[in-house]
Specification:
heterodimer, A: Glutaredoxin, 5-stranded mixed β-sheet, 11 strands, 36% helix, globular, B: 747 residues, Jelly Rolls, 6-stranded antiparallel β-sheet, 5-stranded antiparallel β-sheet, 8 helices, 13% helix, 36% strand, elongated
Chain lengths: 206, 747
């Protein structure tokens, strides 16, 4: 019985990996937590925003209300949002992290957001995302037009601005939606590093 | 040969041979043997389940998955959080890694974070179970109502008033604080205040407690204080013999700094208080440099100033044993440094905070209390950065920062808790401290700090827009309770424009309220403070004054709040300008600034015409006359003058020349002409403030009858010379922002 469960999980796990790895380009296909296949970097509507987040990154969590505000404000202008979770799965049961993400979506008010658990960093590698939280804006042609911070609330670790002076994500979205060039297409995101899970696995049985 | 010795020899050999063999392999740094001990000794007090830190750092996985982050934040010395520089005092509970430890963490991450031998892992430190760590308290206080911390937004500073219900004076030897929502509680400060003394502010905004930063700091500045709490600090009794008074019937004041974390959390703190049997066994004093949190230090920092410095010195009038230091400032402070020069000329560094962070208001208790002999001079230097390069600057673009309790104000002090060692020097010591306090208060009076704070206190009053009839009956109250000033009726009497103040941010914006529906609309919602709204004669536009880059300017905007604002006129004399009227023919705006009144023609060249020493000017409905108040006679009286004559008399004219005096008694403003020009109103200041009515005749030559009182106003209607349309055009309704009793939250 126990063996069967493990085999079953391995199958699910590997098949999802296989699915993700065989795709490439704008058509990156990746299953969400409900098993539905998402194409977060493919053109949909006027623009879409992909947020790389993590359940246990305090800066990523602190931005949850802001992410929700931006997404709800721009929804009427044809902008869709999705979340990609970059947690390191240290629990032996793969389903554990899915449950953790479901719990997180509920606790932080992300109702209705499509969410992906990016176990093997397929999406992060595809987009070259290194930090959570980090935002990517994809225009109607599928081109990544912005990558970086949401705004400049954090000047450095432990140094939050009392007043945000640069609304980078909104500025990028406004530019894309009005057919203008994005003034700063790349900014440095401040938050938690996205860790390669292979690095931890390597040392697991030394 | 012991294992350790072998290891040592190997290490020695490695070190010695390294230059010879070039790139020899350094022994791998492992989590089990090297990193875990560092983490367990310095991080897990907070980074464990149920504690303040956002994640745990216990297992290899916990640490390794955040390895790069840990390397980065330790190198930046953001973590562990400790803001005192080494070499400037040694303190209890220092949370500081050595340079070598930081380098080791960095090297471990570079090497791919080897795990090492699990059997060599150190034991996790033992932490006491939940509950009171100092034992059962003598008195347990609990916040009466839980406070909800929002999911996002700026940090919240909230003061909670908890009655002690003590029936006799007590002495406190220790306090333990137990927050219920540790992830959002950034720090807490404790104080005691006279019972009921905060009832006027507690809960007035409908939530438990009240806002503001310095309620604790100013609570009782002569008291040694009750201390505070930061995450990671171990509860401990006060230093032996240090006790603080908790008088009977006093209220415990808990100031908590909350840090929103992305979801709503609810806080209901517990405070355990431990009593001492007897009062202070020692003669204690709190020495602040500068005194009173810098009240008299002339803190007035121009925008853009990167290196504003204040210094203070104090020569000890007796031997003092120094137990602890503390520092306090707001967001602009950068460096805080204290040094003592002893009578023999030697220098003892006391405290140096190189990069002041308001979020970490540690108290610094010296590991070994020390004596500074009589005649020792303590020097304190504080520097501030009010430029936009300071990311902590609360206002952008930066604004002038003055002394005050708001987060965008500044203050600053380094304080020392000392024992006056010799009985014979106790009186002299306290006299010297009292003299410093008096000098600070005198200086604050002279340098303008006191005046600015008092003006702000008046704005904090809670008011409601209230409409009266001619008999003084309240017809209706409009909009929510808040801080309002300069309410003015629209020319058709259907709406009210008003300045809405936000006492928490010092923000001031123009709002309109529809009288029939009570609906409010923000006409401005920008960072610069806006004031003095006046309606255009057709009611379609509102003009107002806004502070832009230290210049007063008049703007106008559509009265429904739509469309862009338009610059009408820029004024450069330096005094705050106050608009009081826009003539019915649309040709003139009347304003005053400092001691002088001006008429601004809107047609042609917009050059303000300077009139006399007058204020609160109001045009007659036919724009032929102007009514105003002037104190040229030694007291404020209301006059009416021919507008053309006033303009031709120009600057420096005698206000009473060619004028008709309307008020026999002192009257400062609130002037209004009924639309038919046959009745004039003003606010009398005789025996309280009252709305006065005068029959006037102005067709051939101006004539005024005898003023009669319509009704007395409730107290607290301020600055009458800044009012515009106090009445509806028919003279039947009057509007004022009236102070109302504070609302209390349900217990």
């Amino acid at each position: 019985m126990r063996v069967a469960v493990i085999v079953l999980w391995s199958l699910v796990f590997c098949s999802s990996l296989g699915l993700a790895q065989t795709t490439h380009g704008k058509g990156l296909r990746i299953p969400d937590i409900n098993g539905r296949v998402l194409t977060p970097f493919a053109p949909t509507g006027q623009a879409n925003v992909v947020f790389f987040v993590a359940t246990d990154c305090p800066i990523s969590n602190a931005y949850a209300p802001m992410i929700q505000r931006v997404c709800s404000e721009y929804a009427s202008r044809g902008v869709g949002c999705s979340l990609i979770y970059e947690d390191v799965d240290t629990h032996p049961t793969p389903a554990h992290l899915d449950e953790q993400v479901r719990q997180h979506l509920k606790e932080y008010g992300y109702a209705g957001f499509p969410a992906v658990v990016d176990r093997e960093r397929t999406a992060a590698n595809y987009a070259k995302a290194t930090i959570t939280p980090q935002a990517f804006v994809i225009d109607a042609s599928g081109e990544i037009r912005y990558r970086g911070r949401i705004d400049n609330l954090y000047a450095a670790f432990g140094k939050t601005r009392q007043q945000v002076t640069s609304h980078d994500l909104r500025d990028a979205l406004d530019a894309v939606l009005t057919g203008k060039p994005v003034l700063h297409p790349q900014t440095e995101a401040l938050g938690c590093f996205i860790t390669d899970p292979a690095l931890l696995r390597k040392h697991n049985h030394e | 040969m012991s294992r350790r010795r072998v290891l040592f020899l190997c290490l020695l050999a490695t070190v010695l041979l390294k230059p010879l063999v070039g790139h020899s392999q350094a022994p791998p740094i492992t989590f089990a043997e090297t990193i875990a001990p560092i983490v367990y000794n310095n991080c897990v007090t907070c980074h464990r389940p149920g504690e303040a830190a956002p994640f745990s750092l216990i297992s290899y996985e916990d640490v390794a998955k955040r390895g790069a982050l840990i390397a980065k934040v330790t190198e930046a010395r953001y973590m562990p959080p400790w803001h005192a520089e080494p070499g400037y005092g040694e303190f209890v509970g220092e949370r500081r890694l050595t340079d070598a430890q930081i380098a080791t963490i960095g090297a471990w991450v570079k090497q791919g974070m080897p795990r090492g031998d699990d059997t060599k892992m150190p034991k996790l430190p033992e932490f006491p179970p939940d509950g009171w760590r100092l034992g059962q308290p003598d008195l347990i206080l609990e916040m009466p109502i839980a406070f909800d911390v929002p999911a996002s937004g700026p940090d919240v500073f909230r003061n909670f008033v908890i009655p002690t219900k003590l029936t006799e004076d007590k002495w406190v030897r220790g306090i333990e604080f137990r927050p219920s929502a540790r992830k959002v509680v950034h720090h807490a400060l404790f104080a005691q205040v006279p019972g009921g003394s905060r009832a006027n502010v507690d809960g007035v905004d409908g939530r438990p407690g009240f806002g503001g930063l310095s309620a604790v700091g100013f609570a009782d500045r002569n008291d040694p204080g009750l201390g505070g709490w930061v995450p990671g600090s171990q509860p401990a009794m006060f230093t032996e013999g240090l006790v603080s008074r908790l008088p009977k019937g006093s209220d415990f004041l808990l100031q908590v700094h909350f840090h929103p974390i992305g979801k709503v959390e609810s806080e209901k703190s517990l405070i355990g208080i431990y009593f001492a049997d007897t009062g202070a066994q020692k003669d204690l004093a709190s020495v602040m440099l500068p005194a009173a949190f810098g009240f008299g230090a002339g803190i007035d920092i121009p925008p853009g100033e990167k290196q504003f410095t204040i210094k203070d010195s104090f020569t000890l009038p007796g031997d003092a044993k120094v137990y602890a230091a503390f520092a306090h400032a707001h967001y602009l402070a950068k460096q805080m440094k204290a040094e003592a020069t002893l009578p023999d000329g030697s220098i003892r560094p006391l405290l140096w905070i190189r990069d002041w962070d308001f979020n970490w208001q540690d108290g610094y208790t010296y590991k070994r209390p020390f004596i500074l002999p009589k005649g020792t001079r303590i020097d304190v230097t504080l520097t501030y950065d009010n430029s936009s390069d300071n990311p902590r600057n609360p206002i952008n673009p930066p604004r002038r920062a003055i002394f005050g309790e708001q987060s965008f104000d500044e203050m600053g002090t380094i304080g020392f808790e000392v024992e006056i060692v010799r009985k014979a020097e106790v009186d002299a010591f306290h006299e010297a401290l009292a003299a410093r306090m008096k000098a600070a208060t005198d200086a604050a009076g002279k340098n303008g700090t006191l005046g600015r704070l008092m003006a702000r206190g008046l704005r904090r009053a809670m008011q409601q827009l209230t409409i009266f009839d001619r008999q003084g009956n309240v017809v209706t109250r409009i909009g929510e309770v808040g801080s309002y000033s300069q309410a003015t009726f629209s020319p058709d009497g259907s709406r009210i424009a008003v300045v809405k103040n936000d006492p928490d941010t010092d923000g001031r914006d123009i709002w309109t309220f529809d009288i029939a529906t009570g609906k409010g609309t923000a006409i401005t919602s920008d960072a610069p403070p806006d004031s003095a709204p006046i309606w255009s004669p057709d009611g379609t536009a509102i003009a107002y004054v806004s502070d832009r880059e230290n210049t007063n300017a008049i703007f106008k905007r559509a009265a429904n709040g739509s469309g862009p604002e338009e610059l009408v006129y820029s004024h450069t004399t330096g005094s705050q300008i106050i608009l009081t009227d826009w003539s019915a023919d649309g040709r003139y705006i009347c304003f005053w600034a400092g001691e002088t009144m001006f008429v601004l023609p809107l047609n042609g060249e917009r050059k303000a015409i300077e009139l006399g020493r007058e204020r609160g000017g109001r045009f007659s409905p036919d724009t032929r006359l102007v009514a105003f108040s002037s104190n040229q006679s030694g007291r404020f009286l209301v006059y009416v003058k021919d507008l053309a004559a006033a303009i031709s008399q120009g600057a420096g004219a005698d206000a009473s020349s060619q004028a008709t005096q309307v008020s026999p008694e002192t009257a400062v403003g609130g002037i209004f002409w009924r639309r038919d020009g046959k009745e004039l109103f003003y606010l009398s200041q005789q025996g309280g403030q009252g709305v006065m009515s005068v029959d006037v005749e102005g067709t051939a030559s101006f004539q005024a009858g005898t003023p009669k009182l319509l009704f007395k106003l409730p107290t607290g209607v301020l600055a009458p010379a800044q009012l515009s349309n106090v009445s509806t055009p028919d003279g039947q309704r009057f509007v004022f922002a009236v102070v109302v009793a504070p609302r209390r939250p349900a217990q």
